[in-house]
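I am still learning, so can you show me any protein sequence you like together with the matching structure tokens, please?
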Amino acid sequence: MTYPTKISWQFLLFASMVSSSFSAPLNPSSSTGSLVTTAGDCYDYNIPVTTKINAVNWLLPELSDNFAVAGFFADLIARDSSTAFHPVSAPQNTTSFANFSISATFCSPKINSGHDKTVLLASHGLGFDSRYWTSQANPSAYNFVDFALSRGYSTFVYDRIGTGKSTKVSGYGESQFSYQLAVLASLTSSLRQGNYTGTIGEPSKIVHVGHSYGSILSHALVAEDPTISDGVLLTGIAYNASTTDFAAFVEASRLNIANTVEPQKYPGLDSGYLEPADVLGLAAAFFHEGNYDKEILWYADEIAQPLSVIEFVTGSPLMLTKPIAYTGPASLPANLLCDCNGILQHPAQEIFANASAFEAAVHPGSGHGINFNYNATGAYGAMLDFAKKNGL
């Protein structure tokens, strides 16, 4: 039995079950970490994670060339795609197991301000890896980890499956949403037990921070287990269909098969991994003209990562439409390029009706990649002010 893409998203939200094993030493691979920061002490980890989920299967032929990519997205964004287009199956009745090595970095602040045992667990979105949070280009203006450390918070960033230094998998299989969600749940559980936290031991609180797809994952996590997180800070996400336009994102990105755009950079990736055809596609999808430094655009292009076609079709904010039982504080500082006050709040406020505190804020002038646009630190400040105000 098959399901159209938009229906399968709703099934996938609750299809994930997690089993974790941490057979590797808990000692960091580096005592100083790969991040260059003066605000904290950082530790790199390669974390083994075992997952079990009810996976979906890819139903279409693999993308043969960039003409096939264009045809695929034309079908995906067509008006009748919810009934006529079936790229993936429903979740299988049998359990699928997979093992991953997840590359992660934990940082704790050098100066204890009372928040060092609150860990901000940040999940990046499509098109990047954990370096989205750790810009080495003008870090005082763009580096989220540096900013959080300067406010006294600890951070944990990681490369999602298929990106950065984490395990590479097929773009048609194990990079799908449910595996990504299972990994996030596993990492959260491990941090809660005091593993991979440098020298601070067990954290007192874990706050999930997300950007775009990482926000969708963080939302799905607390929807599935309302007790797993002490707070959520979700960026680059809107729950209102009028502000969530996948067709526009696809058209702006001009996605091509990654190993045809940069064959020397991605020789081992299959045709299921896509990236913008050039830097203009990246600019159109993540930046807002007049509100960014082109040097930062080139830096973002340098560190950008391909997205997989199966993660793209199995995760969408539009699948997150039902009220959830999560009772912690929730903040949605979003990037909106219009006079959208009142639109952002609903239906998000109804979805988070049980939250102890809720705040939705427009970050003016920013493109989708908030961290690379002017006044990124303004967004960071609003996020952490909300966290502090709510005892996180």
